[in-house]
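R.M. (postdoc): so does anyone remember the format we settled on? I'll just put the structure tokens first.
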């Protein structure tokens, strides 16, 4: 009886250890560590889990695309009978490189503030809805708390950090949709 109890205890300890070891190499665990670092205002710890450079570039690209589309649509509708409207649209498009540079710097600053825990965003209020892993790439869906833009979820792309058991957020694929909603909300007429 004693040998059976010892064997069962050892078996449970091994299963628990293997399960814990397996869990600590998942994207979910990396998100938990990111959340803990942000809550502790540990910027260096948090930035390990986020590719700030790539994120700021993709966010800037999405923002500029959404803003340019919004501006061009507004300009075209306001000047539909103007024979020089093509010139104005071309001038708006010429501003794209400068806008992307400015947007990238602002996105980088916003990411840094979020990772430093200096924003209203509470990582503890985010809930993972889905995680699909294919090799060294993971696609996640994170549920958002109620917000002014009626966004209920956000998609994240993570990659495994080379020579590590951790994962890093590299992209928010639907950032363009979120920014379009933000711009559309800005132009909405409130009764």
């Amino acid at each position: 009886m004693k040998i059976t109890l010892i064997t069962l205890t050892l078996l449970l300890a091994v299963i628990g250890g293997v399960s814990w070891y397996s869990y600590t190499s998942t994207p979910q665990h990396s998100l938990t560590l990111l959340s803990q670092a942000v809550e502790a205002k540990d910027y260096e710890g948090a930035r390990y889990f986020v590719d700030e450079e790539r994120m700021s570039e993709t966010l800037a690209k999405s923002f500029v695309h959404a803003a340019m589309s919004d501006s061009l649509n507004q300009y075209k509708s306001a000047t539909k009978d103007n024979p020089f409207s093509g010139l104005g649209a071309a001038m708006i498009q010429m501003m794209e490189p400068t806008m992307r540079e400015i947007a990238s710097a602002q996105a980088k600053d916003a990411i840094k503030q979020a990772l430093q825990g200096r924003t209203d965003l509470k990582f503890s209020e985010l809930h993972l809805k889905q995680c699909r892993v294919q090799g060294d790439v993971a696609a996640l869906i994170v549920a958002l708390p109620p917000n002014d833009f009626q966004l209920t979820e956000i998609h994240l792309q993570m990659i495994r950090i080379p020579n590590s058991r951790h994962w890093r957020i590299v992209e928010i694929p639907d950032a363009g949709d979120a920014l379009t909603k933000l711009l559309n909300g800005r132009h909405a007429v409130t009764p």
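R.M.: ...and that's the designed sequence above, right after the tokens. Also worth knowing: The chain is about 60% helix and 15% strand. Strands lie at 127-134, 137-143, 153-160, 167-171.
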